[in-house]
Amino acid sequence: MQGGCVTMQRSVSTVGVHGLVALFVAAVVPAAVSAASCRLNDPAVLRNIGYRGICDNTAILRDGVYEGKPFVPGGASRPRVELLDMPPVRHDLDGDGIDDAAVLLAESSGGSGVFTYLAVVACRDGRAVNAGTTVLGDRVMIRSVAGQEGAIVVEFVAAGPGEPHCCPTRKVRNRYRLRDGELLLASSEVQGTLSFADLKGVTWRLSRLGRNERVPEGVKVTAVFGDGRVSGSGGCNRYSASVVETDPQGFSIGPAASTRMACPDPAGGFEDRYFSALQAANRFGFLLGNLVLHYGKGDVRETMTFEREVPR
Predict the structure, then answer these.
(1) Pick the residue with more confidence: 116 or 5?
(2) Which of 2, 16, 102, 277 is the most buried (most CB within 10 A)?
(3) Interior CA angle at 249 toward 197 and 293, to 5°?
(4) Which domains, from first to last, does the chain contain?
(5) For residues 238 and 230, is the Cβ–Cβ distance under 8 A?
(6) For the stretch 201-211, what's the b/e string if a residue is b when 16 or more beta carbons lie within 10 angstroms of its beta carbon?
């Protein structure tokens, strides 16, 4: 196993129109009713169904988690499958007129490997069921997941030839299609090596500073990376700082120059903490479509997480 866990003329015309309407209603209404009963837009549904193609048996999640029996009686290692905290992608993959839901799951078995799976949940006979699952790889970094022209397109970073799985740099763009009850790879494109340039051209909005501190309500902190600089809003003041790339995922940031507007808390205090963390940041990665900057020194390491801001 790759992941480790194994639907007269006027009279004639009237009848014809009524018949067409009846056929249309018969075709559309059951589909609409079926879609509503499946509740694919309800996170609780996706967190409490069975997913196949990951373990030897169907992994039936309870509140987003499945834990199998220990590999060795009395042992601590056991298969664990978890639905990842990334919004499902809604897209019609089987041509039935109902949007299916594409989700990501992680499987681990107690070792260092953490395998990411792409799964599709579809509406079948009024029930939400797993229609197909495929493995993306071990410790991959997800950059984006989208529905396009009847397929799911996943952009991620995987380990290239000779690279350790801990530190992947090869950018991959895979397209998957649902065929005959299987989620199949339709095309795969290697897009080069991950570099600091992959952060450019996007407004990144901070969602979390450190492991536990969320951005205060009403405060907007952004980062825009350009040629040799990062700029944005610290929540109160505009700022700009120099950036030097040190290796494919490494960089250093100089002191931030900012406007001098005085701001009351929570914006003022949070901005100060953000500027300190930003200057200490020295590595980046991607997690479930979000940008992650690592900061700190030695064993005292933290992360800050940015979401991709979608233009309105």
Answers:
(1) 116
(2) 102
(3) 95
(4) 38-192 (no CATH), 196-308 (2.40.128.270)
(5) no
(6) eebbbbebbee
